């Protein structure tokens, strides 16, 4: 009896140690994630001053592309391992999560100021991108020429966006930046810190998701639920934390530009990867569930941003709550609609 009792106690202690280690990993990853995101945003602000680009342009191009880079790697690896569905689902799911989860969370924390003059340009670009992608997917086949069309469109839009914004006077925008007018570091230092902080952001997000998934597994949560919740949140975690840090520094335009840029790159650039490297049929669920969710999220963004185009509008807290609710509905529909759902005992 004593031996059995000792065995049970040791097994219990072992479980406590495992759970404790996982929780420690989660806390440490969150700490590093916050530090890396804060440094990343500061570097982005310095670069925007040095390059004389508006915060919106830095958010849409530089920050948006940088935070989407992990998704491109995931998509590329998935295609190489012949998991084309994962690659496509990664891009489509991230689009929904970036608007529903990221914008929803930051708007719930604080109302987001939206410059109507700027977003009369960026939001139509986003809408055009998603409409083009959905149109190409309607025949339930993602082909080589679809990828070519997506890449060409991405290139044309980005070049046009850069030319348009750089031609505008940005002195009024830069007067609002809460940073020192004198840049203390060299360009090489800023670029190095930008790359290092981005690496810390991506790696800490990866370890955070790994630890969270292991903890969920330990308590018997199914792979499906983990994939649709932990992974869905994980793919948008860099965008979420970066946008929160942008808000901390008073850079609402950069936060919104991050989401817009990430989504444009996702629906055009990331989806082009499986189209070019592994063209093939697309499941019907992608059309009725994921594409519809993307269109619905985009429509909601139009309604919330352009409720008063006569002046700078705002995404209010209750509107952020609606976006979060729509994201949760999307996750719930995905779980219910997925066959062969089994929970671990």
The gyration radius over C-alpha positions equals 21 Å
- Mean pLDDT across all amino acids: 76
The counted number of beta strands is 4
Low-confidence stretches are 169-182, 340-345
What report would you give on this structure?
This protein has 345 residues and is mainly α. It has a single domain (29-167, 185-337), classed as NCX, central ion-binding region (A middle domain of Talin 1). The protein contains 12 helices and 4 strands, in the order αααβαβααααααβαβα. The chain has helices at residues 2-51, 55-80, 84-109, 116-137, 144-166, 171-174, 187-218, 223-235, 237-248, 252-277, 284-305, 317-337, and strands at residues 112-114, 141-142, 280-281, 313-315. The strands form 2 sheets. A two-stranded antiparallel ribbon has the order 1-4. The protein has a two-stranded antiparallel ribbon with strand order 2-3. α3 runs antiparallel to α10, α4 runs parallel beside α10 and α5 runs antiparallel to α10. Mean pLDDT is 76; it is low at 169-182 and 340-345.
